[in-house]
C-alpha cells in the first residue's frame, strides 16, 4: 500500500492537469468568440464597402464619360466655328474677287471719263465689301483705290469714290514694325478720308501731304513717324489721339476737337491754323525748334502765317516747347496751362485767358500782353515789369492799363502793403 503522500500527489497532479485542460479550452473558446466577432464585423464592412466601391467606380466612370462628352462637344463646336469661318472666308473671297472684277471696268477707265452712275455703283460696292472684310484687307482695299486715283481729295480735280460714313476703325495704314535702318514711307499724298470713322486706327511711316480728314472721327488714332503737310483736319475729332515723331506743316485744324491728345518729339510744326479748335488737357512734349504755328512758334522765314484764334486749351502742358513770334489771340482760353522748360520769345497774347497758368523754368523775351487775364498765375512782378502789358489783369488781381499813364503794378502792390499795415 502506497503511502498517503504519494496518493495525495497523484490526485493533485490529475486535478492540475484537468484544470489546465479546462482553462485552455475556455481560452480557446474565448478566442474563437473574438475572431468570430471580428469576422462578422469584416463581413459587415465588406458588405457595405462593396456597393460603395461599385457606386464610386460608377460615379468616376460617369464623370469621365461626361468629361469626354463635353470635350467632344467643345471639339465639335470648334470644328463648327472653324467650318463656319472657312465658309464665311470662302464667301468673302468670292465676294471680294467679284468686287475686283466688277470694279476693274471702272479702274481701267480714264478718271476723267468716269460717270456719276459709275461712281455711285463703285461706292455701293465698296461700302458693301467694307462691312465684310477684316482690317488688314480694308487697308489693302483703300490702297488699291488710292493707287488707281479713285480716292484723292477734291483739290486734285479727280473724280473720286465718295465713302462718307464708312467705318475704317482699327485699320493700320502704312508700314508697321519698321526697323531703324528702314526709312521707307508709304505715299498717301492727297488721300481723301473725310467724314469717315477712323477710331483707334493708326498711320505709321506715311506721307499724308495735302490729305483731308475733314469731319472724320479719329478718336484714339495714332500718327507715328508721319509727315503731315497741308492736311485738312477741319471739324475733325482727334480726342485722345497720339502724335509721335512727326512733321506738321501748313495744315488746318479749324474747329477740330483735339482734347486730351498727346504730341511728342515733333521735329517740325509750323504754319498751321488752329482757329476755334479745342485742345483741353492736351500734352505737348519735346516740340523742337521749327514749331512755327498758330499754336506755338512762328518763324518769319516761312511765308504762311499761323493762326491761334479763339482756341480752347484748358489744362494743356507745354514741355520743352518754343514760342517765337507767335500770335495767340481771339478770346483763346489757356487757363490752368503749364509752360515748363520752354522759351516764349516776341509773342503776342491778345484777348487771352491765362488764369492760374504756371510757368516753370522758362525764359520770357519781349512779350506783349493785351487784354489778358493773368490772375492766379505764378509770374512774379519782376518778370511782369520787363514786358508790355495793357488792359490786363496781373497775377495779384491788379488791373493795368496805359490809359491812366501810371504803373498800376507798383500802385497795386503799394495798396496791398497799406492794407496789410492797417
TrEMBL record:
Alphabetical list of InterPro entries matching this protein: 5peptide_repeat, Pentapeptide-BTB/POZ_domain
TM segment ranges: 37-60
Entries under Gene3D superfamilies matching the protein: E3 ubiquitin-protein ligase SopA
Highest taxon in the source lineage: Eukaryota
Coiled-coil parts of chain: none
Keywords: Membrane, Transmembrane, Transmembrane helix
Protein name, per record: Pentapeptide repeat-containing protein
Organism: Rotaria sordida
